[in-house]
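A.,

Following up on our hallway conversation. Structure tokens first:
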């Protein structure tokens, strides 16, 4: 997906959520209304893409790197997220997890690994009229902080602070007033600069799909 298309998709989902606020009923206007706070626990499957720009690692015996030759390994692990409902339909969701550890391959050969911490903040719109089934869409920003990078024996480093965008599609199924089941998928776009000899050599594009299932509690 090209950058312009990506930006258009993110903007369209965000505008849908904002426009929905004009039709949303006044939130929590009576004593029986739920709390605005929702907490979910999910098991995630992080499916990364094989993508990078072409470049050369500038060390003795320079290592050429072809386009789309680097693969960051997929990863599964739990996460916790917190949502706050501004209205019945509009919410903000903050996704947090402990650092993910990834192995990295170049042309199918193991070259090391790194850890990353990937909090995501999304604006969401939740749809009405389907009973206990409550689908939603969202869009927002992803921050990826890389750490403990060890690639090509330390010859190749990674940019520490990285920003990207994401779009989201999910659904809650309300078991009762408080408990719910959840399924969610996010598509993210994020680039990480890889560097050697003090210069950025190329951009890594893991652009993961993040798929999760779990349970939630509305206070």
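Then the amino acids I'd put at each of the 219 positions:
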């Amino acid at each position: 997906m090209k950058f312009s298309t990506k930006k258009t998709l993110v903007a369209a989902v965000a505008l849908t959520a904002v426009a929905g606020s004009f039709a949303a009923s006044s939130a929590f206007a009576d004593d029986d209304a739920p709390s605005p706070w929702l907490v979910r626990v999910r098991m995630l499957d992080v499916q990364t893409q094989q993508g990078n720009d072409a470049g050369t690692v500038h060390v003795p015996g320079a290592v050429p790197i072809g386009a789309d030759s680097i693969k960051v390994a997929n990863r599964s692990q739990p996460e916790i997220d917190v949502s706050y409902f501004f209205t019945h339909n509009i919410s903000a969701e903050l996704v947090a997890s402990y650092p993910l550890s990834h192995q990295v391959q170049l042309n199918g050969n193991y070259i090391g690994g790194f850890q990353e911490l990937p909090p995501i903040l999304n604006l969401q719109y939740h749809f009405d009229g389907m009973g206990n089934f409550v689908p939603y869409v969202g869009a927002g920003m992803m921050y990826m902080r890389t750490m403990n990078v060890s690639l090509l024996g330390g010859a190749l480093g990674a940019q520490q602070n990285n920003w990207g965008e994401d779009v989201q599609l999910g659904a809650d199924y309300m078991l009762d007033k408080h408990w719910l089941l959840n399924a969610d998928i996010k598509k993210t776009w994020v680039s990480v600069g890889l560097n050697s000899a003090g210069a950025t050599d190329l951009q890594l594009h893991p652009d993961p799909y993040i798929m999760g299932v779990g349970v939630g509690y509305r206070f």
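The radius of gyration is 20 Å. Curious whether your intuition agrees with the design.

B.
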